[in-house]
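Data deposition worksheet. Section B asks for the primary sequence of the deposited chain exactly as it was used as input, without tags or linkers unless they were present during the calculation. Section C holds the resulting structure in token form. Section D is free text for depositor observations; keep each observation to a single sentence. Incomplete worksheets are returned to the depositor.
Section A, Depositor: J.P.
Section B:
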Amino acid sequence: MANQIHPLAVIDPEAVLGDNNIIGPFCVIDKNVVIGDNNHLLNNVTIHYGARIGNGNEFFPGASISTKPQDLKFKGEDTTCEIGDNNSIRENVTISRGTASKGKTVVGNGNLLMENMHVAHDCVVGNGCIIGNSTKFAGEVRVDDFAIISATCLFHQFCHVGSYIMFQGGTRTSQDIPPFVIAGKEPVRYAGVNLIGLRRRGFSNDVIEAIHNAYRIIYSHGVLKDGIAEARAVYPNVKEVEYICSFIENSKRGVIR
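Section C:
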């Protein structure tokens, strides 16, 4: 089906649009933009240079996608902002494109990015995440699949957030958040396993118990390396425990405890 483009929208002739997109009034689409099929841009959405947008996304008024990075090291290099499929990107969300560091900012599939949140340059957001109002990701933050992050949270650059976590509203962190946990309080710390979230996602009781015991083992040791070795010995064939252990081993900023 043909695209429905409002006469008050401004689209650069070099932009590439797929089929059955709805482009509302006062939207602006820059050159070097590629948009797939079945996307809906409500009014006043701006898609900047370097955007690569998949299918079935909805962009609400004021969203600004593939903005110039807020990084003084950025010298105009040719980078992209890649948005997958079936995302809901709410009012006034800003997503920067990449820098020379990684070359692209990525948002996967099926995410809900709530009003006024910011995804900075070179971030990678996975699939199925829910990110609350006014939460801010600094540069090169990585968020794994199915993370739930509440409103007005702050993430230091280079932080890594694990899958299936629940992050308390108003919390800030400069450390990594390992998978399957609830994190909150001030300063931020481990507040248990995300039991309700895991059950909703279909994790079995045996797997949830293994996750809980793995954290008990790991955090009971003064040296995390020792706890990781014991957790692996106790649960050698549980992929969720291996994910926890690998996440902590590979942490660059250290994990919350």
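Section D:
The mean pLDDT is 97.
The two ends are 53 Å apart (CA to CA).
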